[in-house]
Each structure stands twice: as structure tokens, then as C-alpha cells.
Design a protein that fits this description.
- The protein is of the alpha+beta class.
- The protein has one domain: CBS-domain, CATH 3.10.580.
- The chain is built from 5 helices and 5 strands, in the order H-E-H-E-E-H-H-E-E-H.
- The strands form 2 sheets. The chain has a 3-stranded mixed beta sheet. A two-stranded antiparallel sheet has the order 4-5.
- Helix 2 links the parallel strand 1 and strand 2.
- The radius of gyration is 18 Å and the shape is elongated.
Length: about 140
């Protein structure tokens, strides 16, 4: 299966922040949308970075309450792995697991077309396993 099958079911909306947005604004967006990370894009089309709850928790230890007034660009992860809509889901899952991150922007020619999470991948894989189990049960039942 391909990444585009996940985007087709969950949608391709991407909530973004800019590197000049404050952490306060970013935290509010994370809470409002119930997201674990947001893509940082200064031009609205390409990935400048990503800011996750993990980034914010670690920064809280270093900066304390002043963190809320800092710019996202001071804290974001700048080296961001991306995937394409035609990438294999298993390969993307391996990349995310090995890299120990939970959110990956989906891009085409450098432009953001969606975001997938490890939760999206697990949900998709669970659906596949349920379908396989159902098919095997039907096969065994029909075989008797």
C-alpha cells in the first residue's frame, strides 16, 4: 500500500505555523486541533521544519516559562524527513520507527501535500490485518 491511500482516507489538510510564530500560538494550535506536531513553513508551501510536543517539553526544561514567548524557529527540528504519496507504507513506517519520530510531512516536488503520523500508519496496518484475518476465517470456514 502507498501513502496516498492514507491521505485519501484522512484528508490532506495541513495546519502549519511559521518560524516567526510564537510558541504560545503554536501550543494553542496543537491543543485546538489535538495534534502532536505541526509543520513549520515560512512560505506556506515548503517544509522549513517541524515542531512537536517533544520539542516543546525539552525546551521547557531549558527555557522555563519564557519558552512561550520564543519563536518557533528557535526550537523546531530543522532536518525533517519527508515522504511522497507513492512511497510504500512499510518503508515509511520503518523510517519513522528507526528515526524515532512520529510525524512525517508528505511532499511532491518539495511542496507539502499532507502529513502522516505513526498512528495513521498503525491504524492502516490494523485495518489490513483485520481484512486478512477475515479472509482467512472465511477460507477456513468454506474449506470445511
Amino acid at each position: 500500500m502507498r501513502v496516498k491511500s492514507i491521505l485519501a482516507s484522512k484528508g490532506a489538510d495541513v495546519t502549519k505555523v511559521t518560524s516567526t510564530d510564537t510558541v504560545r500560538t503554536t501550543v494553542l494550535r496543537l491543543k485546538t486541533h489535538n495534534y502532536g506536531a505541526l509543520v513549520v513553513s515560512d512560505d506556506g508551501e515548503t517544509v522549513s521544519g517541524i515542531i512537536s510536543e517533544r520539542d516543546l517539553v525539552r525546551a521547557l526544561v531549558d527555557h522555563g516559562p519564557h519558552l512561550l514567548d520564543m519563536a518557533v524557529g528557535d526550537l523546531m527540528t530543522r532536518k525533517v524527513e519527508t515522504c511522497g504519496p507513492d512511497d510504500d507504507i512499510e518503508d515509511v513506517m520503518d523510517t519513522m520507527t528507526n528515526g524515532r519520530f512520529r510525524h512525517m510531512p508528505v511532499t511532491v516536488d518539495g511542496r507539502i501535500v499532507g502529513v502522516i503520523s505513526i498512528g495513521d500508519l498503525v491504524k492502516h496496518r490494523m485495518g489490513e490485518l483485520e481484512d486478512e484475518t477475515k479472509a482467512l476465517r472465511e477460507y477456513v470456514t468454506d474449506y470445511r
